[in-house]
Amino acid sequence: MENIFSFYPIQSTDKKIITHLAVAFQDNSRMRVLLGNRRADFHKKIIHVISYCYFMVKKIGGLFISKDKNTYLLYYRKSKFYFSLKDCFYYLFLAVSIIGIKRLKKVYLREQRVKHTRKKEIERLGDQDYLYVWFMAQRKEHNSAKGLLEAKAFIIKQAQTLNLPIYIETTEKRLMFLYEKIGFEIYDCLVEQDTGLRLWFGRWGDG
After folding, report:
1. Mean pLDDT throughout 125-135?
2. Using CA atoms in the order 169, 172, 176, 177, what is the torsion angle rounded to 10 degrees?
3. Residues of the chain with pLDDT > 90: what percent?
């Protein structure tokens, strides 16, 4: 994987999980829009993005792995989420070297729109704290609802224990039925006309 993990100490287990997540998100529409469609360097770029998210949640215990080690969930509790100086440098690196200066403004405006949509719902319901599901994926060669349901059961148990709601966003329409079946309310959907990107917003919890 070249020397792309120099920002953080890396163990073999970390590398395996990041690799599986990167492959799982290879065809994800939101990731494609974020990073562009240049096949030559797309895998390297997605490894960087996944690495950043992975280490951001790992330091606060926001990693779940299914029993069969095929399904991964990256999440965080908002009140526990923080940026170290190293995180800030990596974030800047992603913005300049991975996303690129030319595409940065458009990507920034899109992500601000996503955050604003989520923030409106948080403020409407008065959620002072919450759990946020950043990534959930399976190994590319593994396609089973069992691991996904295991991950969902885990995050819901966490939310019940902490008495917190859960917020998610997804571009995977096939997962909508599963989310709604286990009690998520889909409260908004953003459609980007020029890329065709559709992003659904969901929340689980009372309120």
Report:
1. 95
2. -150
3. 48
